Amino acid sequence: MRFLILVLVYLFCFLFNSAFSTAQSIQKISGKVVNRNNELMMGTAVVLSVHDSLIIKQQDFLDGVFQLSDINQKEVILKLTSAEFTDKHLNINYSDAENIDLSSIIVLESNNQLNEVVVKSQPSLLKYGANGTIDVNVAGTVLAASSSVNELLGRVPNVVVAEGQISVLGKGEAIIYLNGILINYERFAAIPVSQIAKIEVISNPSAKYDAEGKAVVNIITKQNIENGTMGTASQHVTVSKFAGTSTNTLLDFNYTKGKFSFITNYGLQLGKGRELLYTTRTRPDPDVYMKSALTTDWQRQFNNYSNFGAGIQYTFSMNSYISLAYSGNIEDLGGAVKSRNAITNNSGNSFYATDIAKNDVLLNQFINLNYNLITDTKGSSLFIGTQYSNYNGTVRDFIEENSIVEETDGKRFLKNDVGSTINIVMSQADYSKKISDKTKLELGAKFSYAAIKSGTDFFIANTDDFELDDTLSSDFTYKEKISAAYFNFGSMLGEKVNFSIGARVESTSYDLYTNANGVQKFGKDYENFFPNLLLNFNLSEDWKAHFSYVSRITRPRYQALNPYVIYQDPFTTIEGNPNLLPEKTHAFEIGTMYKKFDFKIGYTYKIDPISGAALRGDTPNSYILRSLNIEKEHTFFTSLSRSFNVKWWNSTNTVSMNLSKSVDNFYEYTLGPVKPQIYLYSNNTFTIPDLFKIQLLAWYLGDKSYGLRSENPRSTVTLGIERNFFKEALRLNFTANDIFHKFMVSGDYEVGQTQIYYHRTYTTNYFKLIATYSFGNSKKTTYKKSEIEQTENNRAR
Asked: CA 609, 614, 620: angle at the middle one, nearest 5?
């Protein structure tokens, strides 16, 4: 470790001393906004691209003074906007000075009684960054009509949402950030879409980002600075022939006066949902022949799916603020799970029907306290935050089994009672030092402590008397500490190359205890080192390129480690695996961007990839669904994207190809072919001025074979229409989602002499009507709450 630290220090000094020169372009714009009486005004300064009016930089100002850095353009448009004065536009060109001070800018105060003239244009949906990042505009686009952030991300190019995971093609599962701070899945699902400005898909995250996850999705909310109130009320009604009807009521409210800001939100989902899984398991060997055809139908009843939050912020000055927030969500799930399993083997035929009455309740709560300080005029910053997270879950399932075996009927009743608690405490500090306009050093540290405890009592009764089944009951405790530190250094190499190099060091220790299948008790301490490198080449104004190397880790979710039994039918259970290892990833990428074409090619190598399979149990017909580590995985990918924007038509198009090969020599997988997977994406918005917007979204994910498994193709076509009323105070949106109901996850694999086929259908085919009303005397929100829900919260699922 001492040698490693010396190497890092030497590397840092070398890179720091090698930073020189700057590009011949505008780097910083500053100024002071006043009225004709020389009174300071407040508002927003926005730097726009002269080519497509995309936002390059944006800053809010309270005392008239603004400063925008890292612009890197030869010509820009500066837009000053506020409710206090009429919009002002300035064209700024590079002229031998990288730092431009505009001094006092006089604006004309607005008269609210004047008739308003608004010039509108369709905002561009996407912006491709030189380092492979994709910026997706949400505010002002049809994407803002999505019912949830989960649905929203499913409409973003190169992002696939399925089976509780959010993945970036060619990279793997992503972690979610909110305004640059990592959050957990529950908080992510509770973010009101009405407060989202844009989404960044970061396929090559630096050492600043937590090492968990192969990519980063950063959600950026609207953050402006006007006094007053603003709120939205939205009612969603979803009708699905497959699942039934559900409603989603969303409310959010913001209030600002002086230095105080208050924000609150509430969402309530009621109604029905459904998921259908068809699985066959076949052992063709005549000596152990067996075929099981299992259908499992989750008929969910959302008794109370709600999320809520409230926060207060005090702004000391334009350079510092402190915020305190409380948020949470409740998942009260009822309904039934119906399983039907027909088994044929050498002994004859049998049929099992199982009905589970669901009574599951989950309460998640989070408290955040954060402090943010801008430490100098260059924009250096300090962030300090802490969070407490609490998860409480109960399962009270009543199970009825009916079986027909060789014309003999049988019935029995079971109860599955589970109680679980997860407590996580985290603290984080991040410091960003702007050494110069082109050189920045980032340092940070994090500590987290997680304590998990659960108990499962499984009762079986052939009559009315229930008796505890010791073989299916268990206790589980898990304690984990993670300490992490990172540095990231960015600067220039000549006039056309900038770089970012960094490293993250994490130390993990944990203790695990379970009495499932005998007492297991063990602990472990280990350290990990994650280097990262990014090179950007500014070859010309129209041609840019990048190279990146990123190393990451994926730790198992806590529930995946817990070996407690989730009952599915008499021969099928879902159980955790306390022996799971973290998955490590090394990813390389080369990309180039020419005008509005974006091309990438890359390679990802995974060690101990976390996968899952149906493994044979202790009895001839039983199977256990369990997470497991396979040996390694290789992935090659390439992607080409093109966007264009005309007055009435906005179109984004992507074509990608992935080629993966998984290798394992432990679980007796049967090796299969390796075939590439094709991905096609097209998102089109048509704007009919003063009437409505029409959105047509379609994507196709082709079949995939990667050695150990094969997956079948899936696709979706979505059509939406939107219209605003009463000066945009009321918005109506009608959407037909997954019109042909082709979003189905299916595939096959062979492990341990068993051929397994699965086909899962979701509630994606539906019609939805959304009505959203905006109210208040301000169109902007000021709350800048950051959250530090780190990786440990993501693993609490």
From this structure: 145
- Tell me how far apart the alpha carbons of residues 80 and 77 are, in angstroms, rounded to a whole number: 10
Query: Scanning the structure block, which residue is given the tokens 């149990």?
Result: 617
For the chain, give the percent of residues with pLDDT over 70: 87
Q: How confident is the model at residue 13 (pLDDT cuts 50, 70, 90)?
A: very low
**What is the distance between the alpha carbons of residues 246 and 140, in angstroms, rounded to a whole number?**
26
Place of tokens 């817990």: 562
β-strand partners of 7: none
Q: For residue 119, what are its two tokens? A: 């010039």
Q: Quick check: 715 and 671 in contact, CB under 8 A?
A: no
Q: Identify the bridge partners of residue 781 per DSSP, sorted by sequence position.
A: none
Alpha carbon distances (Å) from 403 to 297, 334, 350, 367, 399: 18, 24, 7, 49, 13
pLDDT mean over 554-578: 80
pLDDT in the model for residue 212: 75
pLDDT at 341: 92
Q: What are 289's strand-pairing partners?
A: none
pLDDT band (50, 70, 90) for residue 273: very high
CB 720 within 8 A of CB 695: yes
Rounded (to 5) percent helix, strand, coil in the chain: 5, 65, 30
Spell out the alpha helix ranges (H) of 574-620: none
What is the per-residue DSSP string for 688-751?
ETTTEEEEEEEEEE--EEESSEEE--EEEEEEEEEEEETTTTEEEEEEEESTT---EEEEEEEE
Q: Are 131 and 58 in contact (CB under 8 A)?
A: no
Q: Look up tokens 């970012």; give the residue.
A: 500
**Dihedral angle over CA of 402, 404, 409, 411, nearest 10:** -20
Distance CA 286, CA 281 (A): 15
- pLDDT-derived band at 332 (thresholds 50, 70, 90) equals very high
pLDDT at position 118, please?
35
Q: Are 198 and 480 in contact (CB under 8 A)?
A: no
Contact in structure between 246 and 270 (CB atoms under 8 Å):
yes
Give the Cα separation of 625 and 476 in Å (integer).
Answer: 19
Token code pair at residue 387: 């969070």
SS3 of residue 259 by DSSP? coil
Instruction: Find, among 397, 395, 404, the residue nearest to 460 by Cα.
Output: 397
| CA atoms lying within 13 Å on the CB side of residue 791 | 26
Task: Quote the CA–CA distance of 153 and 159 in Å, as a whole number.
Answer: 7
Token readout for 745 is: 């996850």
pLDDT band at 790; cut points 50, 70, 90: very low
Q: Which of 279, 566, 619, 277 is nearest to 399 (CA)?
A: 566
Q: 695-727: b or e for each residue (b if 16 or more CB lie within 10 Å)?
A: bebbbbbbebbbbbbbbbebebbbebbbebeee
Residue 15's H or E segment, with its range, is helix 2-18
163, two tokens: 């089976």
Q: Is residue 287 exposed (0-12), middle (13-18) or buried (19+ Cβ within 10 Å)?
A: exposed
E-strand ranges in 438-577 read 440-461, 467-468, 474-493, 497-514, 520-538, 543-554, 565-569, 572-575
pTM: 0.75
Distances from the Cα of 348 to the Cα of 231, 343, 521, angstroms: 65, 8, 42
Q: Partners of 729 in the beta sheet?
A: none
Query: Is residue 6's pLDDT more than 50?
Result: no
Please check the confidence at residue 747 and state whether its pLDDT lies above 90: yes
Cα–Cα distance, 769 to 354 (Å, whole number) = 36
Tokens of 241: 């022939």
Which backbone phi and psi does 18 adopt, to 5 degrees?
-90, -5
> Which residue's entry shows tokens 């230095």?
259
Whether the Cβ atoms of residue 711 and residue 752 lie closer than 8 Å to each other:
no
Which of the four pLDDT bands, split at 50, 70 and 90, describes residue 533? very high
Sign for the CA dihedral angle at 388, 188, 456, 613 comes to negative
Q: Using alpha carbons, select from 627, 555, 545 the residue that is nearest to residue 585.
A: 555
